[in-house]
Amino acid sequence: MTTAARRGYLHQADVVRLLTFGAVIGVHAVAFTEPPSSRAWGGVLMLLQFGREVFFALTGFVLVHSARGRALDARAFWRKRFPAVVAPYLAWSAIYTAFHVWGPAHQRLSWTSVLWAFATGNAEYHLYFLLVSMQLYLLFPLLLRFVRRTAARAWPVLGVVAAVNVVWLAWLQYGTAPAGWAGHLWPRAYELLPTYAVYVLAGAYAALHLDRIERVCAERRRLLLGAAAGAAALAELAFWAQVGGREPRLAAAVLQPAMVLTSIAALIVLYLAGRSWADRGRPGAALVARASDLSFAVYLAHPLVLEVLLWLGLGNDGQRLPAVVATGLAVIGTAAGAAGIAVVARRSRWSLALTGRPRLHVRTGAYEVRRGVTEPSQVGSRP
After folding, report:
1. Is the pLDDT score of 363 beyond 80?
2. CA-to-CA distance for 231 and 109, rounded, in angstroms?
3. With contact defined as beta carbons under 8 Å apart, do 369 and 101 qualify?
4. Rama region for 283: left / alpha / beta (φ>0; ψ in -120 to 50; rest)
């Protein structure tokens, strides 16, 4: 086991989080700057769209790891977790609604549509993640009890849940919506926690078996990398097998069975990368810790920056530059702009609402809380 794991602080989680956020920005930049008809870029998206799956696995992992060896007080857990996701959800829903009305798009929105967007996470395309996180936090006390009781049977449980998830994803990708009330859930599958059940459970069980995972990572690194390469290759083959009869973006849809392979590959590669960084003494640790602290705020703000850049001429509708140049500028500009917003937001009195974290004290770099200060290094493994 690594020193970080023994201490209870998961430094490798910071690296996993940062690389995944980078992939999310890359996916959104490609989606809006490259032509939807491009098969090559569809294949790229097939390998990059692992963000939501990895995030939910990481969330399950960190939540269970933080509860290891102690009983969970459900009310205390909810009091701590819900403000950090509900406040940003409401704040950024309002920000994006205002931007859509008074920004370049000049959308005309009724109060009914605004309220519906707030209720369903549709004020902006990435806010569904916060909505699903709320569902996970609500059910986490039951989830923790379940994974603790079934820890010795993790593989059979994961096998059953994975099979159900794959069938559900196959239905979404290749089937048709059922009649009746169930059909209304069909287009909202990405907003429902059960769609990501296998990833949350995989992360939760991994936290309970961290010693074994660390040992396997140390002894079978090459085998794991080979498995990741094989899974990624199979996912790409699945894309090319579909693209003949489907549009590239539909063939690369994130809610499909082949994305399980992409997510397995990503989880293996990202965790090994984080572990390798921790084992090498964590070079640039201060920068990584600071970037990790800002990462959620960057996630919240990045579509706002990206939409401005698209409006300025980078978007694939009325693009003024070669697409590949526009994509590169969109990735760099979005990351830089969102990071700038995050830095300012972290030091503002509205930090909790804008970043999901208490205000960062400008002079000391510590978090301001009612009953004292908490050093950033103590909470960096939060999801």
Report:
1. no
2. 44
3. no
4. beta
For residue 242, which amino acid is it?
A: Q
CA distance 97 to 111: 11
Q: 53-67 burial, b if ≥16 CB within 10 A, otherwise e?
A: bbbbbbbbbbbbbbb
Both tokens of residue 82? Answer: 């819900």
pLDDT at residue 10, rounded to an integer: 78
Compute the average pLDDT of residues 340-364: 86
Domain boundaries of the chain, sorted by first residue: 3-283
Rounded CA gap, 233 and 300, in Å?
31
- For residue 369, give the 3-state DSSP assignment: strand
Scored b (16 or more CB within 10 A) or e, 262-291 reads bbbbbbbbbbbebbebbeeebeeeeebbbb
Residue type, 231: A
Residue 367: pLDDT above 60? no
Q: What is the mean pLDDT of the chain?
A: 89
| Residue 212 predicted with pLDDT over 60 | yes
pLDDT at 6 over 60: no
Other CB atoms within a 10 A radius of the CB of residue 107 amount to: 12
pTM of the model: 0.89
Residue 182's pLDDT is: 76
Report the C-alpha gap between 334 and 29 in whole angstroms: 8
| Residue 382, helix vs strand vs coil | coil
- Among 3-7, 224-228, 335-339, the minimum mean pLDDT is found in 3-7
Give 78's contacts (C-beta < 8 A, 6+ positions apart).
Answer: 137, 138
Query: Distance between CA atoms of 210 and 19, rounded to whole angstroms?
Result: 21
Q: Residue 250: name the closest of 263, 238, 234, 265 by CA.
A: 238
